[in-house]
Each structure stands twice: as C-alpha cells, then as structure tokens.
Amino acid sequence: MRVLVVEDEQLLADAVATGLRREAMAVDVVYDGAAALERIGVNDYDVVVLDRDLPVVHGDEVCRKLVGLGLPTRVLMLTAAGDVSDRVEGLELGADDYLPKPFAFSELTARVRALGRRTSVPLPPVLERAGIKLDPNRREVFRDGKEVHLAPKEFAVLEVLLRSEGSVVSAEQLLEKAWDENTDPFTNVVRVTVMTLRRKLGEPAVIVTVPGSGYRI
User: Fold this and answer.
1) C-alpha gyration radius of the chain
2) Measured distance CA(122)–CA(193) in Å, rounded
3) How many C-alpha atoms does 183 have within 13 Å on its Cβ side?
4) How many CB atoms lie within 10 A of CB 76?
5) Average pLDDT, stretch 37-56?
6) What are 133's strand-pairing partners?
7) What is the C-alpha to C-alpha distance for residues 116 and 46, in angstroms, rounded to an integer?
8) Where's DNA bound on this chain (predicted)?
9) What does the alpha-carbon distance between residue 96 and residue 21 come to, in Å, rounded to a whole number?
C-alpha cells in the first residue's frame, strides 16, 4: 500500500511516516498543500493522510481537488478540531474518513488499512491464495498453516501480489506500491526482494516470473 502523509507539523508527519513504514507501507511525506497536489499529480496513492489546516494550500482545497480528479485514492482527514460539525464538514468535502487530533497511532493505522481495502473491487481483510494467508492488520503470513516471518518490504511485496488476485504485477508497479519516491528506480531492489520472498515462502514456488512482464501468484 502506498500512502501520502500531508502534515505541516514536521515532527508529527515524520513520526507517522516512520510508524506506517514499520507496518510495511510505502510512505511519502510533504508539509504543505501545494506540495501535496504536486505529489498527487505524479504518484498513485492508495490513501492520503491529510491534515486539514495546511499552509500554502488549505487541506480543504487539496481534498476538493483530489476528489475532483476522480481518483480511487482514499482520504483520511486529520484535524485538531474534533466537534461533530467539523467532522461532518470534512466528510462533506469528500474525505472518506476523519480522525481528530490527538489520536492513537494504532487507530490511525487501522483506519489507513481499512481505507486501503476500499478499492473499486472490495478486498477481504485477510488475503488468501495458493496456500498463503496474509493478515495486514496483524502483520502475519502463513504458508500452508506455518507462519512465515517477513521483513517489511517482503511483506509489502507479497501484499501487492496477493491483492492483484492472479494478475501480473510489473516490477515498476511493485516499486511504486512497496517503496517510496526516494528509491532509485534503476536498482535491482525488486528482483532481490522477490528472490528473498520466494526463499522464505518455500517450495513449491508460488511467485511466478512472467518474462518481460513481471510477477504473479
């Protein structure tokens, strides 16, 4: 899952990003509304964690423009204002969910994951295919009933492949969904991660390489 965190309190933004990365999400961070619109125009995000009170371009305007683009991106709006009227107003702007500050990080993570499942084709909370069972909320993976311990990027790649439901996922798509924008696109990080993931999942191999196209399960 790829997430954009938009928050002008840099310490909070960086803390949220670090926590979400530990949950095997690819996270980009910006600190104002103009930068958010620029990133949204370049990258595809599953979820945008959007502070409402932003400098340069207000969070409300960012939300309006994002919704107006008709993208499948989900918006979790953050604000220090926790009144019911504020929550209603935020949702009426087109936000998919609303979380007042201060918040528990565990709740933020749960809400981000819930929004990530609300794609055009709704996905179950636990992904299963070819004997693999992946629970994003618990960060658990099982192969034929045996637990498999994965590093965050390995978990993220496996989640993307399972979410594709048998479709081929290119190396470029894996790079976009499992790594943030600071990753060098010319590295072999995807190939190396897939090789390690195959080894940990064991035999028979379930990740198939489609020459010239990518990978699938």
Assistant:
1) 18
2) 27
3) 18
4) 21
5) 94
6) 128, 142
7) 6
8) 124-217
9) 22
174 φ/ψ sector (left φ>0, alpha ψ -120 to 50, else beta): alpha
Q: Is the dihedral of CA 208, 174, 20, 52 positive or negative?
A: negative
Q: Considering only CA atoms, which of 115, 118, 138 is closest in space to residue 126?
A: 138
Q: In terms of residues, how long is the chain?
A: 217
For residues 21 and 135, what is the distance between their CA atoms, to the nearest angstrom? 16
Rounded Cα gap, residues 155 and 141, in angstroms: 8
How many Å separate Cα 115 from the centre of its chain? 9
Q: pLDDT tens digit string along 127-157?
A: 999 999 999 888 899 999 999 999 999 999 9
pLDDT for the residue numbered 123: 64
Looking at residue 32, its amino acid is D
Give residue 15's pLDDT: 96
DSSP 156-202: HHHHHHHHTTT--B-HHHHHHHHS-TTS-TTSSHHHHHHHHHHHHH-
Distant-in-sequence, close-in-space partners of 158: CB < 8 Å, separation ≥ 6: 132, 134, 141, 150, 197, 201
The average confidence (pLDDT) of the chain is: 90
pLDDT in tens, 166-208: 999 999 999 888 888 777 766 789 999 999 999 999 999 999 9
What are the structure tokens assigned to 107, written together? Answer: 């709740």
